[in-house]
Amino acid sequence: MISVLKINKWAGFTLAVIGFSAQAAQAPQHIDVKQYKKVEDVVVPLPNEVFGALNKLGPVNWKEYVRAEKGTNFSERPRTALLLGNVIADGFIAVQAQDAPAVKDIGQRVLSLAKGIGVGASITPHAKAITEAADKRKWESVRQELDRTQSSVQGAMNELQDQKLSQLVSLGGWLRGTQILTAVVTKHFTQEGAELLHQPDLLRYFGDRLTAMPEYSVPVVESIKRALVEVRPLINSGNKPISPEAVKKINEITTRLDGEIVTR
Amino acid sequence: MNPRRQVIFVLVIVPLILGAAATASVDDAQSFALQAAEPYVREGFQVREDYWGGDLAAGEKKAVRQQLFKGNEYWFWMGTEVRHARISVHIYDKEGKIIEQPDSWQKGPFAAAHVVPTSTDSYFIIVSIEESPEERTHWALVYGFR
């Protein structure tokens, strides 16, 4: 559910007055997309968007992918940012698995990491809400709080003029989501499942962002840069569908990176 | 209105109204976008917490590029707090072909576009201020999927 606090009375009143007598939108059928200035280069999806699409292709045993170990904390800010994104993605996996103890652990872990990076204050209420919702098995509320957690962490980083760290949070979540997507599709291969990996603009976006942050050139960031170059031809198969071998290879690459992100 | 009340109105109420208008922001526009989304939440759409926005002159357009996944169904809702503005949002694929569903709609300061992607790829969400009494008009875009 969206937050009613964010909807002011004036908006509600205006919509009520206008009513919902929808008009068909008249729009050009073809445009030159290159002519438009972009607000956002590419919007990075949350992991649960791809998990939602995956669920529609058949049953997934999400419990298999819930991470049990607590992991370590790091002193380097870029590593912590990557790990934060990774752990929030783990939260979405735990929601899919409806695993309340794992969700609660993840809530506390996110709080601890956020404090380590100086944005803990913005996360405390979300961590509390995650625990309460998990206790009540309100999975939609947990999902929403995880979304808010990521948004608040990134908002706090942006306020601190640290947009690059914020981008690393997105990258950490995307890598963990891709690791799980490829694990599921490798296990029960379908072309529809493999097609969910067709994200060339996101790969380019992350590659460009990493190149633009030489100050965060820690080994794991360098590994990710190289890995993105490795993955690009595997998902850009032209008119051919993405092969089972390519999915397996991407899973190996993202699993290797996951190991580098979560362990010291 | 008696003269004393007129003075109070000019000295107190008018500055309050003008002040409120001056402090209107993208957050207010987001509130309108979320209001447009509300009925769809009841139909099972998960609305993402993040939003995109800014301000545009009348006639101006901008693009938000977004990765969409085949299998999901998406709605994009746009809003502005400028009551007499007319805004629009439309969705195109990489080749510039419109791909939104016919139930997409626009109504004054609200607009919405519905898409069921036929392939997993990035798409272009084109936002526009069609008409507005303001020089610059705040807008915000939120999206949801199911």
Describe the protein in words.
The complex is a heterodimer of chains A (264) and B (146). Chain A has one domain (43-262). Chain A has helices spanning 9-18, 47-55, 77-97, 100-116, 124-135, 139-159, 163-187, 191-195, 200-211, 219-235, 244-262, and strands at residues 23-24, 38-43. Mean pLDDT of chain A is 90; it is low at 1-5. In chain A, 64% of the residues lie in helices and 3% in strands. Chain A is built from eleven helices and two strands; from the N terminus they run αββαααααααααα. The two termini of chain A are 38 Å apart. With 264 residues, chain A is mainly alpha-helical. In chain A, helix 5 (124-135) packs antiparallel against helix 6. With 146 residues, chain B is α+β, with helices and mostly antiparallel strands. Chain B has a single domain, classed as Jelly Rolls (Sandwich). Chain B has helices spanning 3-22, 26-41; strands at residues 46-47, 52-56, 61-68, 74-79, 86-92, 105-107, 110-115, 121-131, 137-145. In chain B, strands 1, 2, 4, 6, 7 and 9 form a six-stranded antiparallel β-sheet that branches. Chain B has a three-stranded antiparallel β-sheet with strand order 3-8-5, with no helix packed on it. In chain B, strand 6 (105-107) and strand 7 form a beta hairpin. Chain B is globular and about 65 Å long. The N and C termini of chain B lie far apart (54 Å). Chains A and B meet through helix 1, strand 1, strand 2, helix 2 and helix 6 of A and helix 2, strand 1, strand 2, strand 3 and strand 5 of B. Strand 2 (38-43) of chain A pairs parallel with strand 3 of chain B, so a sheet runs across the interface.
